[in-house]
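Q: Here's a chain of 190 amino acids. Please give me its 3D structure as tokens.
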Amino acid sequence: MLGSLSLSYDDLLQKELRTLALFIAFTSSFIEETFYKVFISPDGSLNGFLNFTLSDFNISDFPGDLNILSEPDTSVEYCKYQDHREPPTANNKYEYKSIYWQFATTCLMFVFNFTCLVFIISSWICWLIPDIPKSVNLQIRHENHVINDMIIEHELRKAKYLALNEKKKKGARLEDTSPRGSVQGDNDFS
């Protein structure tokens, strides 16, 4: 019973670990900032990061029945929103940019690497810190050795006892087969 609980507990921890990795990858800006610093920024800084994360939307592309401005202002043409989509001036407007797919792949690589790293570290810690203290483990080994010696000694006594009984039985059989009252070497044929 305890072993099955341990397995289900390990499965639950693995699921929680994957959920945490997905949460870090897709909801925090850590991966996106690192991606920007490594692949996009010319000087490795976060200069221009905010504009990188925002996409443009032409407010004239809203359906006619949606009026987002209380007073129509003709000076506002575009609004920005957080996503990696093509601008309204592109042929494939509002579709995901290729950089989005690269970023999504980076997030999935992070999830895989994060789970592997945590698994390796936790396995290393489990190996480093044993479940049973060394003194208890030595005592168990000593007790097993003493028990094995006792078993071997018992089996040896049992084998000697059986061999002695076997000799007694053979000796008794030899006495039963000889004629009673006769002595060896005594041949009376008269």
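Q: Can you summarize the key feature?
A: The chain has a mean pLDDT of 83.
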